[in-house]
Write a structure and sequence with these properties.
Strand content: 25-35%
Distance between the termini: 21 Å
Number of domains: 1
Shape: globular
Structural class: alpha+beta
Number of strands: 8
CATH class: Alpha Beta
Order of helices and strands: EEHHEEEHEHEEH
Radius of gyration: 16 Å
Largest sheet: 8 strands, mixed
CATH topology: Aminopeptidase
């Protein structure tokens, strides 16, 4: 069971009752201008309940709960089987973007990954066109390690929606040098 307090937020395991907040996050994400550059999530009540219950069974996907609003405002992902390395991701409802919630939550989870889980490196990726995500990764200290053309979705005609995406890396030593470790 994971529970990380950051001040305004609690990063914790999902519980099945989080499904309504999670559904609002996914509907918001699927309506964003960047939705075409990521895997598609189902938005129906039954599917969201199923995914939320699955998230609740593990530590790979964590709810970001805001104390003031008394709701889940986003989620973080930290997963992978490679020894010492985890994939890192995030999604926040647009109503809570540009308020420092993402940097606060991500910093809390990165500290946990490096100091408690003893992870040595985090990898991430995003579409280059998604500048808010690129800026967040840079602010967190991730460095770009490569670019590739990829596709997660298709047009209504069945043609792949291709885009240039970048891969990013953050190593524990670099993180500690930035001085975030005590946050």
């Amino acid at each position: 069971m994971i529970k990380i307090n950051t001040g305004r937020l609690i990063i914790r395991n999902f519980v099945p009752d989080d499904w309504e907040d999670f559904q609002a996050i996914i509907i918001d994400k699927e309506s964003s201008e960047y939705a075409a550059y990521d895997h598609q999530f189902p938005i129906s009540e039954n599917e969201v309940k199923r995914i939320t219950a699955w998230f609740a069974k593990g530590d790979d996907f964590l709810a970001v709960y805001e104390l003031v609003s008394d709701r889940v405002i986003g989620y973080l992902a930290l997963y992978g089987d490679t020894k010492g390395e985890k994939n890192f991701g995030y999604t926040f409802h647009s109503a809570y973007q540009k308020k420092g919630c993402a940097i606060e939550a991500c910093t809390g989870l990165i500290n946990y990954a490096f100091n408690t889980m003893l992870v040595e490196r985090l990898i991430s990726g995003t579409a280059n066109i998604n500048q808010p995500s690129c800026k967040l990764l840079a602010k967190l200290g991730f460095r770009k390690t490569g670019e590739s053309v990829t596709s997660f979705r298709k047009t209504p005609e069945g043609k792949p929606i291709e885009f240039v995406g970048s891969s990013f890396l953050l190593e524990k030593e670099e993180w500690l040098e930035q001085g975030y470790s005590g946050s």
